[in-house]
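Annual report, structural modelling task.

Input specification for the zinc ion complex:
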Amino acid sequence: HRILLLGPPGAGKGTQAKRLTDEYDLDHITTGDALRQNKDMETEYGTPGEFMDAGELVPDPVVNEIVVAALENADGFVLDGYPRNLDQAEFLSEETDLDHVVFLNVPEDVLVERLTGRRVCDDCGTNYHVEFDQPEEAGVCDECGGELIQREDDTEDTVRERLRVYRENTEPVVEHYREAGSLVEVSGEGTPDDVFENLRDVVEN
Ligand code: AP5
Ligand code: ZN
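The model returned the following structure:
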């Protein structure tokens, strides 16, 4: 399977991508995680972290390079967080075909609540939520015992800016796939288990 997961910040792309990759033995290609691991890398545009902490997009050449390298080594994959503008979508279409393009749809008020309450494992990146997805022991990752932290871009002001950037740059990408007839829309509301069931139906049909 070559799956593209589209959706606004906080739609649950990372959460569902992890489930899909575990279930179908796929690679998880996520520009967000890759950039977080290289936040301080010097590029001709500055460091990725300067853009990310402000909620802005990292320049295309930096992100495209990450995706090319990841696709080279991937057989089946879930792509999450890319493409985020029409230029990236065009670039991607020259690099690979896709079997499923899925749009996780979640209303904006729910997104803000999810993102400001998110906690992530500092070691393995697993997502939690202070209300909706708590670990067994407070502040400790179930998967690896790592410490749970809040992402720097999950403050309310930066979340609002990320949503603005999404509407301006990424919604046209969703429309692009919709017009091409390849978009399948899945509700991202309900529990993570509910959403995953819906995704399974899409992937297996
Ligand atoms: P990135 O890391 O891609 O962030 P994002 O798109 O804003 O997405 P998120 O990770 O915030 O949300 P998600 O949809 O994965 O939701 P999650 O599963 O975590 O990008 C970060 C930054 O990197 C960008 O701002 C940009 O600067 C840069 N960047 C990345 N890619 C780029 C690109 N291609 N081009 C340029 N720049 C790029 O869930 C959110 C929360 O909700 C969690 O707490 C989770 O536990 C909870 N939750 C999940 N599902 C449910 C549910 N069903 N019910 C209740 N709670 C749920
Ligand atoms: Zn962990």
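The first helix runs from residue 13 to 24.
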